[in-house]
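WARN retry 2 of 3 for item q-0093 after timeout on previous attempt; input resubmitted unchanged.
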Amino acid sequence: MEVVAVRRGAVRSVVVAGLLVLGVSGVPGVPGVPGMSGSAEAWSGPEADLAYHGRVSLSQGRLRVWVVPQNEGPAALPNATLRVRLSAELADRQELAEGCARAGLREVVCETGALPLHGRGRHVGLLLELKERVPEVVVRIDTWWNGGASDRDLSNNQHAVLALDTGDAYAF
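OK item q-0093 returned
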């Protein structure tokens, strides 16, 4: 029961974070987005450059994903959410790492934890079961919520990796 409670809490955090990013207001318990005055150019919040490094491996319908989030600054972030999207469907049941939640048939989101200036967040390790065994899968890793900061350089936090069903690790 305790694990279910953690996952529900993580799911609520991820959903609230997404609503904040989208600027949704009027949802109970979700305030409007501070720092926004109607246009993207008017953003007055912090700036942080998120980067993800890691590897993926596919073997017999099991996908291993290891991600290390990093913040290049100039501001520290209390938390962010990374997203892992797949070209193949996930099996119905998944045992996900703490702070991670399933966000769709082919999608998982995970909290990064605090990201200090020029520092790393918590390492995220996932073992994902696919619905069907496939010869290859495209794994897309990006930021779903950036802790309320702007990020001008998306090239280091948006990755697409083709993993073949060989058990080999592919780095990004």
